[in-house]
Specification:
Its main location: membrane. The chain is of the alpha+beta class and 165 residues long. Helices cover 42% and strands 15% of the residues. It is built from six helices and four strands. It has a four-stranded mixed sheet.
Length: 165
Protein backbone atom coordinates (compact mmCIF):
# COMPACT_ATOMS: atom_id res chain seq x y z
CA UNK A 1 0.00 0.00 0.00
CA UNK A 2 2.83 2.42 0.84
CA UNK A 3 4.44 1.84 -2.58
CA UNK A 4 1.15 2.80 -4.23
CA UNK A 5 1.07 6.02 -2.19
CA UNK A 6 4.72 6.71 -3.02
CA UNK A 7 4.02 6.17 -6.71
CA UNK A 8 0.98 8.46 -6.58
CA UNK A 9 2.96 11.18 -4.84
CA UNK A 10 5.82 10.83 -7.35
CA UNK A 11 3.41 11.16 -10.26
CA UNK A 12 1.72 14.17 -8.64
CA UNK A 13 5.08 15.87 -8.07
CA UNK A 14 6.14 15.17 -11.65
CA UNK A 15 2.83 16.53 -12.99
CA UNK A 16 3.17 19.67 -10.87
CA UNK A 17 6.70 20.31 -12.07
CA UNK A 18 5.64 19.79 -15.69
CA UNK A 19 2.70 22.16 -15.26
CA UNK A 20 5.08 24.81 -13.92
CA UNK A 21 7.34 24.39 -16.96
CA UNK A 22 4.57 24.45 -19.54
CA UNK A 23 3.59 28.12 -19.40
CA UNK A 24 4.02 30.13 -22.58
CA UNK A 25 4.09 33.95 -22.73
CA UNK A 26 0.71 35.32 -23.84
CA UNK A 27 2.27 37.47 -26.56
CA UNK A 28 3.81 34.45 -28.29
CA UNK A 29 2.14 33.29 -31.48
CA UNK A 30 1.72 29.63 -32.32
CA UNK A 31 3.46 29.76 -35.70
CA UNK A 32 7.17 29.11 -35.87
CA UNK A 33 7.73 29.05 -32.13
CA UNK A 34 10.51 26.91 -30.77
CA UNK A 35 12.61 27.19 -33.93
CA UNK A 36 14.80 29.98 -32.61
CA UNK A 37 17.65 29.83 -30.14
CA UNK A 38 15.46 30.99 -27.22
CA UNK A 39 14.26 27.52 -26.26
CA UNK A 40 14.55 28.04 -22.50
CA UNK A 41 12.07 30.92 -22.31
CA UNK A 42 9.67 29.85 -25.08
CA UNK A 43 9.38 26.16 -24.25
CA UNK A 44 11.41 23.33 -25.67
CA UNK A 45 10.58 20.88 -28.40
CA UNK A 46 9.95 17.51 -26.78
CA UNK A 47 10.31 15.15 -29.71
CA UNK A 48 12.85 12.29 -29.55
CA UNK A 49 13.20 12.35 -33.35
CA UNK A 50 14.08 16.07 -33.52
CA UNK A 51 17.85 16.57 -33.09
CA UNK A 52 17.26 19.89 -31.29
CA UNK A 53 15.06 18.30 -28.63
CA UNK A 54 16.48 17.53 -25.18
CA UNK A 55 15.06 14.02 -25.64
CA UNK A 56 17.39 13.49 -28.61
CA UNK A 57 20.35 15.30 -27.08
CA UNK A 58 20.23 13.63 -23.65
CA UNK A 59 19.65 9.99 -24.47
CA UNK A 60 22.19 8.25 -22.26
CA UNK A 61 22.48 7.42 -18.57
CA UNK A 62 26.04 6.73 -17.45
CA UNK A 63 27.01 4.36 -14.64
CA UNK A 64 29.90 3.89 -12.26
CA UNK A 65 32.27 0.97 -12.72
CA UNK A 66 30.59 -2.40 -12.04
CA UNK A 67 27.34 -0.68 -10.99
CA UNK A 68 23.78 -0.60 -12.21
CA UNK A 69 22.48 2.04 -9.79
CA UNK A 70 21.21 5.10 -11.66
CA UNK A 71 23.40 7.99 -10.41
CA UNK A 72 21.59 11.03 -8.97
CA UNK A 73 22.98 13.27 -11.71
CA UNK A 74 21.06 11.26 -14.36
CA UNK A 75 17.73 11.03 -12.55
CA UNK A 76 16.51 14.19 -14.31
CA UNK A 77 17.27 12.58 -17.68
CA UNK A 78 15.18 9.53 -16.74
CA UNK A 79 12.41 11.80 -15.43
CA UNK A 80 12.38 13.81 -18.69
CA UNK A 81 12.05 10.67 -20.83
CA UNK A 82 9.45 9.24 -18.43
CA UNK A 83 7.37 12.40 -18.64
CA UNK A 84 7.43 12.27 -22.43
CA UNK A 85 6.41 8.61 -22.51
CA UNK A 86 3.67 9.11 -19.91
CA UNK A 87 2.19 11.88 -22.04
CA UNK A 88 2.58 9.90 -25.28
CA UNK A 89 1.11 6.50 -24.49
CA UNK A 90 1.51 5.19 -28.04
CA UNK A 91 5.27 5.84 -28.07
CA UNK A 92 7.69 3.00 -27.27
CA UNK A 93 11.34 3.06 -26.27
CA UNK A 94 14.09 0.47 -26.17
CA UNK A 95 16.61 0.93 -23.39
CA UNK A 96 19.96 -0.47 -24.49
CA UNK A 97 22.43 -1.40 -21.75
CA UNK A 98 26.18 -1.30 -22.33
CA UNK A 99 29.38 -2.09 -20.43
CA UNK A 100 33.04 -1.22 -20.86
CA UNK A 101 35.63 -3.63 -22.26
CA UNK A 102 36.77 -4.96 -18.90
CA UNK A 103 35.32 -8.30 -17.83
CA UNK A 104 34.04 -11.29 -19.74
CA UNK A 105 31.37 -11.17 -22.42
CA UNK A 106 28.74 -13.02 -20.36
CA UNK A 107 29.34 -10.86 -17.29
CA UNK A 108 29.09 -7.66 -19.33
CA UNK A 109 25.91 -8.82 -21.07
CA UNK A 110 24.34 -9.43 -17.65
CA UNK A 111 25.60 -6.06 -16.34
CA UNK A 112 24.24 -4.22 -19.38
CA UNK A 113 20.88 -5.93 -18.86
CA UNK A 114 20.81 -4.90 -15.19
CA UNK A 115 21.55 -1.31 -16.25
CA UNK A 116 18.74 -1.20 -18.79
CA UNK A 117 16.36 -2.89 -16.32
CA UNK A 118 17.27 -0.35 -13.60
CA UNK A 119 16.36 2.55 -15.90
CA UNK A 120 13.13 0.78 -16.94
CA UNK A 121 12.12 0.19 -13.31
CA UNK A 122 12.70 3.85 -12.49
CA UNK A 123 10.58 4.87 -15.47
CA UNK A 124 7.76 2.58 -14.40
CA UNK A 125 7.84 4.13 -10.92
CA UNK A 126 7.43 7.48 -12.65
CA UNK A 127 4.28 6.31 -14.44
CA UNK A 128 5.46 4.81 -17.74
CA UNK A 129 3.56 1.65 -18.69
CA UNK A 130 5.66 -1.51 -18.96
CA UNK A 131 4.30 -2.12 -22.48
CA UNK A 132 6.06 1.04 -23.67
CA UNK A 133 9.50 -0.16 -22.60
CA UNK A 134 11.77 -2.86 -24.01
CA UNK A 135 15.16 -3.59 -22.47
CA UNK A 136 18.16 -5.17 -24.11
CA UNK A 137 21.87 -5.54 -23.39
CA UNK A 138 24.74 -5.26 -25.82
CA UNK A 139 27.36 -5.76 -23.12
CA UNK A 140 30.72 -4.59 -24.43
CA UNK A 141 29.87 -5.28 -28.08
CA UNK A 142 28.87 -1.71 -29.07
CA UNK A 143 31.39 0.69 -27.52
CA UNK A 144 30.96 4.41 -28.06
CA UNK A 145 34.65 5.08 -27.30
CA UNK A 146 37.31 2.73 -28.67
CA UNK A 147 40.27 3.53 -26.39
CA UNK A 148 41.50 1.94 -23.18
CA UNK A 149 41.56 4.98 -20.90
CA UNK A 150 39.29 5.49 -17.89
CA UNK A 151 37.46 8.22 -19.87
CA UNK A 152 36.81 5.73 -22.70
CA UNK A 153 35.56 3.12 -20.24
CA UNK A 154 33.27 5.67 -18.58
CA UNK A 155 31.77 6.61 -21.97
CA UNK A 156 30.88 2.96 -22.59
CA UNK A 157 29.19 2.28 -19.22
CA UNK A 158 25.73 3.47 -20.17
CA UNK A 159 22.10 2.83 -20.99
CA UNK A 160 20.75 4.51 -24.13
CA UNK A 161 17.18 5.53 -24.95
CA UNK A 162 16.29 4.38 -28.45
CA UNK A 163 12.78 5.45 -29.51
CA UNK A 164 10.84 3.27 -31.93
CA UNK A 165 9.03 4.88 -34.88
Amino acid sequence: MSSRITKSLSIAALAASLAACSSVPLDQTGSGSGAGGDGASTGQIMDPFNPQSPLAQQKSVYFEYDSYVVPDQYRSVVEMHSSYLSNNGQQKVRIEGHADARGGSEYNLALGQRRSDAVARMMQLLGVRAEQIETISFGKERPRAMGNTEADYAENRRADFNYQR
